[in-house]
Design brief:
This protein has one domain: tt1808, chain A. Helices cover 21% and strands 29% of the residues. The protein is built from 4 helices and 14 strands. The protein is globular, with a radius of gyration of 17 Å.
Amino acid sequence: MITSLAQLDFDKSYSYADYLTWQFEQFIELFKGKIMPMSAPSRLHQKISRRLTSIFDHFLEYRTCKCEVYDAPFDVRLIKNPFGKTEKEIYTVVQPDICVICDLEKLDDKGCLGSPDLIIEIVSPNNSQRDVKDKFELYQENEVKEYWIVRPYENTVEQFFLENGKYAYKGTFVKNDCLSPLILPDLEVDLKRVFED
């Protein structure tokens, strides 16, 4: 039984089937089979995550659209054409800070199988490379329709949406702005509420 990261070979590729057998407390992600340990989030990170999740949750509760919002830890298994794939054929498992899924057939007891419609990552100083470059490319490749990068220490949100298979930059929004997800255009996210002290 694997109970510690020290028991794993970081040069080896692992599948979701392997991931399910590990019994340690630290959260990790798999990027195309490679182990990516996750660090504990800061209090500011968690505060912003809670506020954003609450805004989406409250909005979705009273709408007829059948979307659901989830926050980490929540496994998202990224694979194109995922249905019919076995756990041994899945090599990417991420835990986005927040994700919105509108195709409820992608949801099961283990999380989400396939790409969410919207992913929000809250950048910490020690994970900016992963969120700004690595996950950006991963989410683009797996056709996540919309991606937000939240920078809590700068009070900004960068919004990207998928256009012809590539992320197009929608804009950078600051503390006094409101922005709307392209997938939920009736929702206005007031960033003053998100970033207020």
